[in-house]
Structure formats: structure tokens, C-alpha cells
């Protein structure tokens, strides 16, 4: 099987070649072909991988010349997976040497999110926020998996809160802004006190 390493969200050109049972390229396989690709998972945020701008699992039109056609693949989930294809009659499934083995890395961290819901703290009482996670645009944790660069180190965090800042009569809101991250997750206790 062909193999490669790609980044979630990045466009990657792939080539599909038609072979006969002697493993010779079928040069007469030409023109527009209706192909269906499979094997890659949806991202944590449910974004669907695409080939030729069409979601995996749906029919994609690929133009072939002398037995070979190219299309652009965009994977969305950080994973190790195999991409297969069929035209409804001929398929790459059933033999691992026919597919494309892909290592998909997460993209650079795009935003932060809490690992769980905050709950209902009491005004003026200190509590700990859930840990923070740095994720890419598709929700993949920026943990450095599959050879990607992890979101790690000391960071300064700014929080956006709803409502009127501080207490109506007294009390100043406080939160932990100096936060350390390892493999995409915060390791600092996020002590917080809200008076609003």
C-alpha cells in the first residue's frame, strides 16, 4: 500500500490507478468515473473528510487518463487509517496493498476549550475550573500525536465571562491566568473566585 503523513485540514493530492488481475495498469480506463472513498473517520467536531470536495461515503467524480486519476483529499481527524476506493465494480478493499495508509496529524492549536462543564459555583467561594484543552480547527487535541508539534509550555490565559464584572457591592473576580500545558492539556490548577 502507498503511505503518507498529512495534516488535518490540509489538501493532499492522491492518485488512483486502475489495474487488471496481472497488476498491469489498465490504460483504457479513461474519462470521468464515479468513485466512492472510505476508511477515514469524522473529526471530533463531526467534520467529514472529503475527496474532490465531496464527503467520504458519497460519490465523487474523478477524471482518468490512461488508467490514472487524481483528486484532492482533506482529512479531518488525527488518526492512522487506510483510504479505500471503489467504482462500484472494482475496489481497493480486500487487499491491504491496494489502499493508501495515512498518518493524519492534528493541525496547529486553533482554540482552547474546557474539558468538561463548569457547574454552578457559589459567588465569593473559590473553586477550580475544569482543565483546558488546546484543539485544532476540527477539535483534535493538540497532543503531539503522530509526530505533530504539541501545544505545551507556559501560557498566559485570558478569560471572557458573561455578566457584570465583580460583585454588585464588593468582591473582585479572580482567575488563574498563568497556565502550563503538556501535550495539549493544562496541568495547572485553575483556581477561580467569582463575585458576579
Give a description of the structure.
- The chain is mainly β and about 200 residues long.
- It has no helices and 17 strands.
- It has strands at about 1-5, 10-15, 30-40, 50, 55, 60-65, 70-75, 80-85, 100-105, 110-115, 125-130, 130-135, 155, 175, 180, 185, 190-195.
- Strands 1, 2, 3, 4, 5, 6, 7, 8 and 9 form a nine-stranded mixed β-sheet that branches. Strands 11-17-14 form a three-stranded antiparallel β-sheet, with no helix packed on it.
- A hairpin with a 2-residue loop joins β15 (about 180) and β16 (about 185).
- The model has no long low-confidence stretch (mean pLDDT about 95).
Q: Number of helical segments?
A: 0
Form type: elongated
Which percent range fits the helix content? under 10%
Secondary structure class reads mainly beta
**Biggest beta sheet attributes:** 9 strands, mixed
What letter string, H or E per element, gives the SSE order? EEEEEEEEEEEEEEEEE
Beta-strand fraction estimate: 35-45%
What's the average pLDDT?
95
Terminal residue distance: 59 Å
Task: Write a short abstract of this structure.
The protein has 196 residues and is mostly beta strands.
List the helices and strands and how they pair.
Blueprint: E1 2-7, E2 11-17, E3 31-38, E4 50-51, E5 54-55, E6 59-65, E7 68-74, E8 79-86, E9 100-105, E10 111-114, E11 127-129, E12 132-135, E13 153-156, E14 174-175, E15 178-182, E16 185-186, E17 190-193
Parallel strand pairs: 1-9
Antiparallel strand pairs: 2-7, 3-6, 3-8, 4-5, 4-7, 6-7, 8-9, 10-12, 11-17, 13-15, 14-17, 15-16
Amino acid at each position: 500500500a502507498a503511505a503518507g503523513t498529512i495534516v488535518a485540514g490540509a489538501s493532499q493530492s492522491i492518485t488512483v490507478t486502475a489495474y487488471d488481475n496481472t497488476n498491469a495498469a489498465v490504460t483504457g480506463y479513461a474519462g470521468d468515473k464515479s468513485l466512492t472513498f472510505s476508511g477515514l473517520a469524522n473529526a471530533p467536531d463531526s467534520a467529514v473528510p472529503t475527496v474532490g470536495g465531496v464527503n467520504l461515503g458519497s460519490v465523487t467524480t474523478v477524471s482518468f487518463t490512461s488508467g490514472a486519476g487524481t483528486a484532492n483529499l482533506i482529512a479531518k481527524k488525527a488518526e492512522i487509517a487506510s483510504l479505500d476506493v471503489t467504482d462500484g465494480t472494482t475496489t481497493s478493499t480486500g487487499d491491504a496493498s491496494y489502499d493508501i495508509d495515512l498518518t493524519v496529524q492534528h493541525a496547529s492549536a486553533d482554540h482552547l476549550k474546557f474539558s468538561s462543564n463548569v457547574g454552578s459555583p457559589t459567588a465569593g467561594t473559590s473553586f477550580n475550573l475544569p482543565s483546558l484543552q488546546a484543539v485544532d480547527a476540527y477539535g483534535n487535541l493538540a497532543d503531539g500525536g503522530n509526530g505533530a508539534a504539541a501545544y505545551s509550555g507556559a501560557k498566559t490565559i485570558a478569560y471572557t465571562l458573561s455578566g457584570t464584572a465583580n460583585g454588585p457591592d464588593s468582591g473582585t473576580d479572580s482567575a488563574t491566568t498563568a497556565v502550563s500545558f503538556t501535550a495539549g492539556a493544562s496541568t495547572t490548577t485553575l483556581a477561580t473566585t467569582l463575585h458576579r
